[in-house]
Amino acid sequence: MKPLRRFAHAFAVVSLLSAASFTVQAEDILIDAVATEDVVNTKVLAVDLDKRIVTVAGPENSEVPIQVSEQAKALHNLKVGDLVNITVNRSVATVLETDLTKAPGISKEAGVIRATKDNPNPGGEAFRQIKVTSKITKIDLKTHEVTLTPPEGPQKVVKVEDPDLQARMKNLKVGQSVVIVYTDVLTITTRSPS
């Protein structure tokens, strides 16, 4: 995905989010985690307050219009020439739950943190987290495969390729849950050019 397309998608995500939080239980075991970060620096080319459209500089001298939701309360402070920094952090964590009573399911949580009153520049931080829980229904130590029952659809067989994880498979139990947690954190800061 191109950086500016990521930026436009991430910016749109901010307008969809609502407040929530997420916790991991102490008895849960982290199996694997991967994190990435994308950074886009751009500048404001136009601001249409009535239509709530902000146009920013794109690649190769292009212009990218972005529809901004009502949640952008400080939009009136944004000016042509302001610099915009967007940082998108994404992570995927796989967790083994030791509670055998959990059923397959999907949960979504989100939140928004706005800039403070003392900071007139628009910006803020938003997060979205999706948690998919699948139940372990079969473990094959010889082929290094685990069969999972997801919340929707047919069972899935997962081949464990990592030698460290293969060695830890003997600790798995049928009935345990594997949870994959997808997290996106979007941070937007703006400032007037110096």
What does this structure look like?
The chain has 194 residues and is mainly beta. It has one domain (3-191). Helix content is 10%, strand content 50%. It contains two helices and nine strands, in the order αββββββββαβ. Strands 1, 2, 3, 4, 5, 6, 7, 8 and 9 form a nine-stranded antiparallel sheet that branches. Strand 2 (53-57) and strand 3 (63-67) form a beta hairpin. The longest helix is centred in the N-terminal third of the chain and has 14 residues, at 3-16. Residues 1-26 have low confidence and may be disordered.
Reading the helices and strands in chain order gives HEEEEEEEEHE
Alpha-carbon distance between the termini?
31 Å
Number of strands: 9
Flag low-confidence runs: 1-26
> Over all CA atoms, what is the radius of gyration?
21 Å
What is the overall number of helices?
2
State the share of residues found in helices, binned by percent.
10-25%
How many strands, which pairing sense, and closed or not: the largest β-sheet?
9 strands, antiparallel
Whole-number mean pLDDT: 79
| C-alpha geometry | elongated
Proportion of strand residues: over 45%
Task: Count up the domains.
Answer: 1
Q: What class do helices, strands and sheet pairing give?
A: mainly beta
Signal peptide: 1-26
Keywords: Signal
Protein name: DUF5666 domain-containing protein
